[in-house]
Structures are given as C-alpha cells and as structure tokens.
Amino acid sequence: MTTLPSTEEVWQALARIPDPEIPVINVVEMGIVRDVRLEGPKAIISMTPTFSGCPALHLIRAQLEETARSLGFAEVEVKTVLSPPWSTDWITPEAKERLRQYGIAPPRPTRERGALIELEAAPTRCPRCGSFNTSVKNTFGPTLCKAIHVCNDCKEPFESFKTV
C-alpha cells in the first residue's frame, strides 16, 4: 500500500511549478496557491488567479492537478477562489527580490484604509541601477500585471509589476 504525502509535501511539490509568465518564481510564492487540504485519497487545492481573466489560468489549474496526481492522489479538486481577490502583497519577499534580479521592478506594498486599498505614492525604482529617476512609458505592459518604465539615469527600459 502506498503512503500518500503530507500536506507540507504537497506544498513543496506545488512550489516546483513555475509561474507561466515569470519563470523565476513559482505559483506558491506568487500567492496563487491559497490552500491545500487532504481528505484521504483526495487533494483539494484552492487557488486565486492574479486576474480573473488571466490567460494562464487553465495552464496553472492543469499543472496543479497533474502535480497532485503525480504524488499518488486518486482524486484532485482544484478550486478557484475569487474572494478575497489576489493581491501583490501575497508575493513573498524572496520572490519580489528574484523579480528585481530578473529585471522586473517588484510591486510596492499596499495599505488598507477602510474598504479601499491605497497605493503607496512612491516612484518606481529601476531594478538595474537602483535609481528612482524613472518614468512610465506605457501603463500596459506585455501582461495585464505589468507596466513599461524607463530609467532616466541608466536609460534602460524595464517592466514593473503593478500593485493590486
């Protein structure tokens, strides 16, 4: 008889699934995987997509299911949870640093004020030279979650992760 993995072992396996759009971070540290519950031979994984219309949503769902099945679970349920909505605050500090090293300015923290979330009013730091002397070139980047900036000091264009 095969022994099924523990919840922690499932989390570790899911952490090996790279984010489809940013391969230097995984879906766990991105904050997409919200919960793992084991009920005998069944794994129940809850996920919150970064955007409800995320084009990689079906791929992420399939990879979560495939990973759990490869661990020996006969039944896998992947639930999409939209409330509370995903927030860039769910990205781990380690993943934010890897974003910066990859050349993407990580999102700034948010702070809640009543029912609204207020973005910190601060310039975006260039991930290459560290300068705050940057400007937005396009609020629409290659994906919904990113914008295009340019550093006025080192003259390099870069993507920044939008704070949501």
Distance between the termini: 46 Å
Measured by DSSP, the beta-strand proportion falls in 25-35%
Secondary structure category: alpha/beta
How many domains? The number is 2
Query: CATH superfamily name of the largest domain?
Result: Fe-S cluster assembly (FSCA)
> What is the CATH architecture descriptor of the largest domain?
2-Layer Sandwich
Could you explain the architecture of this structure?
- Helix content is 20%, strand content 27%.
- The chain contains three helices and nine strands, in the order αββαβαββββββ.
- The chain has helices at residues 7-14, 57-70, 93-102, and strands at residues 33-39, 42-47, 75-80, 104-105, 110-113, 116-119, 134-138, 146-151, 157-161.
- Strands 4-9-8-7 form a four-stranded mixed β-sheet.
- β5 and β6 form a beta hairpin.
- The radius of gyration is 18 Å and the shape is elongated.
